[in-house]
Amino acid sequence: MFLFSATSVEFFKDIFFVSDVPRRFSGAIIRHSTMTLHGDAQKTVFLQKMEAGLFEIFEHQVICEALETEVLPTPLKPSLHLHISLDNNDVDAFVNGTDSVELRKEEVNLFYLQSINVAIIPQGKHCFFHISFRNDTLFRLLKQAPFKRLSYNVRKKVREAIENKGGMINAPRQVMLNAYFMMLVQDIRHCRFNEEATACYREKKCMLMLEHFIWQLLPQKGNKIELTTHDVIVLDRVKEYIKWNIHRPLTLKALCQQFNISTNFLVKGFHQLNAVSVTHFIHLYRMESAAKLLAEDDIPLNSVPLLTGYTSFKSFTAAFRKYFNCSPLAFCHP
């Protein structure tokens, strides 16, 4: 199964009214998706859904012709939903039809949804992306050492939401859509592996997204540094250098020497700009590169560890299995 491809997302930008949508759109542009005309055809919803292990992934593209239209997003089953508004408009919504929430653009929120909900969507085009998962997936994550301090309050909010048949779990705390969230969304959208590998890959990306969301709920340290335009350019060069040299031993010390910068600047500046640490990004990109190389027919399996910075196939396999929860061989099948 595939989410909206880059081609279809670009294509969607040129659609302003229902009449602009070619009949071939659902079948040819978006694979395994559905198009739904609601009521008076004042709104059209393109819905994409897929399984991803512990998660289900949804993306909705909505064209609304009316000045203000009501839609009734009802979950397929009671569950938690990590919701991202990839939209330029704020949307008024009512969980359970009573509790008012505002879905602001470029914002990430965690909901428990059970019954019929109401969203008031303004005229135009809208995009909503969310992942759905069971309560115990969240509760297991909260048992990890960094998140234990949040466990009691989050569990309490989930229990209250269940009693109320729905609610926002992170209220009143707001979590903003940042570069790392968007990177994970794009990874999910552009995934092109076989069925088994795709399920493992997308499940990992969803888990990373949920972990990152929980991190944002923790008290944030107020030690940001001022980044000039030149600083941003240097940090972007560091990021590109990592991508092009993933086969080399990459350490903070080596990167600082390469770009003649301090460790403090690299660590704080990189995290501030990319919402992820340097070491985490290096590991993440090693795994991304390995997954893509494994899927290539013309690259020998025993070459992949060396091409991604590992000294042996054994150490590479252990790291890959821990990251994706499957063997590297799963990615080798066409």
UniProtKB/TrEMBL annotation:
<dbReference type="InterPro" id="IPR018060">
    <property type="entry name" value="HTH_AraC"/>
</dbReference>
<feature type="domain" description="HTH araC/xylS-type">
    <location>
        <begin position="236"/>
        <end position="334"/>
    </location>
</feature>
<dbReference type="InterPro" id="IPR053142">
    <property type="entry name" value="PchR_regulatory_protein"/>
</dbReference>
<dbReference type="GO" id="GO:0003700">
    <property type="term" value="F:DNA-binding transcription factor activity"/>
</dbReference>
<protein>
    <submittedName>
        <fullName>AraC-like DNA-binding protein</fullName>
    </submittedName>
</protein>
<keyword id="KW-0804">Transcription</keyword>
<dbReference type="GO" id="GO:0043565">
    <property type="term" value="F:sequence-specific DNA binding"/>
</dbReference>
<dbReference type="Pfam" id="PF12833">
    <property type="entry name" value="HTH_18"/>
</dbReference>
<keyword id="KW-0805">Transcription regulation</keyword>
<dbReference type="InterPro" id="IPR009057">
    <property type="entry name" value="Homeodomain-like_sf"/>
</dbReference>
<keyword id="KW-0238">DNA-binding</keyword>
